[in-house]
Structure formats: structure tokens, C-alpha cells
């Protein structure tokens, strides 16, 4: 029974399929129905239409014919492949590949069959490789929504008409002057115009001459552009080229020597014309002596006469040719070489100076106030008052020994009256006294100039109280507690130091040594 049921239903199913097949072959309306029955999914909205059937994209039992059917509709893509243009014509991944590998169908009406990874897309496979600033541009800046990518404009002016600072006056071929890196990177060859750029004009900004981006009709004479730069304020006329060239305003080409008879040498070569020509080139009429122009800057106030060239030259006032060593009886050495003339020559140079001893000029500079005499050269030299002083302290009443050799003068000599400096230790080292005056003021009894740590005192030999027993190794401050004004006065009685240690509370008197020994309190001896 079961086998009969299966065979019966199989015959019915096969019959239905055969009937449907013949019905499909008979009419177009029946074909649409069968296609819908066996279709793998709905077509995308771009491929939907009454005139689109399976045969539009598929050839029965022939998969290789599918690409040709695609290109019959997409003729622009076919043209690109044939001409090796655009993405489909240049990409090695597209050549010979099946269209359906990238453009998948039957995924629904809203499925994007032309989707691709935009950030990873290599624009070099198109007819418009991205260069310069275009590399950073957003896709949507050039590819308008709703239009094919291939329809994006490729001319500069198509995208940048609103950025055209020239307002169309120079045409639409932006690339003839500008680069893709930056608008300001201009390659325009100005030498092809009637005004080749020379000197400083080579680096000038276009807008400096072409106001408001207006290029036609720009004047070519100097004064038209540089009137505001004219330091002469029109006093020297408008023919700037008579004195200047395109290199720099600061380097005039006017030959002052041949055209005026007054050669500009030294510092005169670099000064501005208006420094001498205060009104115009001819007014006022200038003299040719130094003092005619430089009287107001004469620091000597006429004391040294009117012939400046006796000492100075045209390079600078500070460099003078007067040789004080050979032309006077006082050669300038050390610090005297750099002092101003007026520092010594207060009166005209024709009037002799007071004298040639140091104290004649430097009495007011003497910090010792005459206490060390007038012979400054005994200690000082002409280079500096404070450097290389040659005073030998060992020849004084206080030779410098030990650490005193490295001490600075001002450490002991608080004033420049050196003779009044004290020579006893305590006068300088009272603050350094670790004993706080308990051992008197004669530091030299224990210490030497080598250092505070270098000391030697024999308490057994130098005092009447030898340190024995428990007294050995004690610090000085253990017994010497109060300040000693002059000599040390310290009692040798036990009770003087050990009253607080007396357990007997004075019952046995103050002569501790009768029972105790210096070694320890618990070593008791009875009388």
C-alpha cells in the first residue's frame, strides 16, 4: 500500500512539472510565473522592470555568456574595458572576472549591488588619480549623491569656481598656474609678460602688486607701487631707478663719488640719504668737513678742536687712530686702553693733566681712604683694581697659615682699612666656637690654623687635674659648662660636678674621694 501511494503521488508531481514546462514554453505570461517560482530572490530596484526577464542576464546552460549580457546594457562600462579606461578598464582584478563576483543580485530591492569599500578604494585605478590636497578630500565633496561616480567632474573650475579669487578674469584653466597641493603654490611664469620679475620682485606676493586679484592693467613704474615705501617722501623725485634696483631699497646704485665728488667711505656707505640730505638732494647745501655734519655728536664738545680726522676715521667714532703711546708721554696699558678720553681729559687736550701718579686720578676711587698711602702700584696693576693684587700677607704681622691661605680677604677685612683687622681667633671665629666660650678665648691652646678638627691638648700635663679613671674620654663640655670670660676657672672638687649624683644628700660631706675612686662610684674604699 505504501509503495503504491508513493508511485501514485510521484506520477502526479512529475505530471504537474511537465505541464508547467509546456505551459512555460507556450506563453510569455506563463514564463513570468515560472520564473517567480524558481527565482533565488528578489532583484534589486535598479534591475526591476517589465522588459527585464531572466534571459536579460542569464543564458540557459551557459554561464560564460553572462558578462556579455551585462555589457550589452552597461555600454559605458564596456567602452571603458575596451579602451582600458576608468576603473573597469584599468583594474587587473576586473579583467576577465565575472561581473557577478562584485555585483551580486537577488538580494532584495534595497540591496546595493555596486557597493564597495570607499576608504580602501585606490583612486589611481580611475582616470583621475588623487594628488596633493585631493588625497585628503572627502568622497562626497566631488561625488554628488544620486549620480554615478564616473559622472564626477574632473576640471578644476567645475569644483572650485567659487574659490576663484580672479572671478574668471584669467579663464578656467587653474592648473596653468596652480598646483594640487595648495592654491598658493603658483607656477606662473611672469617672465612671459612685459614685466619679468627680477631681484626682490621674485619673492613678492602676487597680491602686493595685483590688488584685489586684478592682473590686467597693473602699472609697471616703480613709484606707482612703492610710493608708500618712499623714505624720501617724494623729495628725490619719482625716478627710483636712478638710485635703486630691484634687489633692495637698502642697496642704492647711485655713484656718489663720481656724481657729487664726495666719495662715501666707511660708515658713510651704509647710512640713509636723508641722514645728510634732510630736505632734498640739493637743499640745504652740505659742507664737506666732519664737523659740518657731526658737530652735535661731538662728545668732546669742541675741546679737541674741529679736525676730527686727527683721531677718528670714517668707519666709526669709537675707533680712533690717535696713538696715545707714541704721541704722549703716558702710554695706555691695561684698563687705561678702553677708557673714554673725556674720563681723564676733562679740560681741553691742550691743558695738561694734574699728574701721572695713580692717586692723581683715582683718589676718589681709593677704598682705603688714604690709610695705606698713595702708592697704589705697590699692590694693584693697571689691568684691574681687584684682579692679580700682589700684596704678600706673609710680610705682615699676621702671616697666613693653614686654612687662612684660602680665605677671602673680606672674610677677615670687613672694611678696606686693612690695618685695623683683629688678629685674635675669637674676633673672627666666635660664631664657630663649639664650646660656647666655656674653654676661654685662646683657641690656639688646642687648635691650629690647619682646621678645627686638628687639635691637641694634654689635660694631664697642661692642667693640675689629670684625667684618670672614668674621667678619661669625657667630652670637654661634660665638665666645662659655663662661659669663661678670660682664663678657665674650673673647680677640681668632685662635688662641683657630681652634686646631683650624691646619693647621701650631703650627709657625709663634700669630700667624695675619701670613699670613692675616679674609676667608678661603686668602687668604695673606707678611711
List the helices and strands and how they pair.
Layout: H1 2-26, H2 28-38, H3 54-57, H4 66-73, H5 75-83, H6 86-90, H7 156-160, H8 206-209, H9 222-226, H10 256-260, H11 290-294, H12 324-327, H13 341-344, H14 358-362, H15 409-412, H16 425-429, E1 447-448, E2 451-455, H17 459-462, H18 494-498
Antiparallel strand pairs: 1-2
Helix pairs in contact: 1-2
List key phrases describing it.
disordered N terminus, two-stranded antiparallel ribbon, 2 strands, 527 residues, 18 helices, flat, mainly alpha
Task: Output the helix-strand order.
Answer: HHHHHHHHHHHHHHHHEEHH
Helix content: 10-25%
- The assigned structural class equals mainly alpha
Strand order of the largest sheet: 1-2
Q: What is the CA–CA distance across the termini? A: 149 Å
Shape: flat
Supply the number of helical segments: 18
Mean pLDDT: 83
Query: What amount of the residues lies in strands?
Result: under 5%
Low-pLDDT residue spans:
1-31
Largest sheet entry: 2 strands, antiparallel
Task: Determine Rg (CA atoms, Å).
Answer: 56 Å
Number of strands: 2
Brief sketch in words of this structure:
22% of the residues lie in helices and 1% in strands. The protein is mainly alpha-helical.
Task: Describe it.
This protein is mainly α and 527 residues long. The chain is built from 18 helices and two strands. It has a two-stranded antiparallel sheet with strand order 1-2. Strand 1 and strand 2 form a beta hairpin. Helix 1 packs across helix 2 (28-38). The longest helix has 25 residues, at 2-26. The N and C termini lie far apart (149 Å). The relative contact order is 0.03.
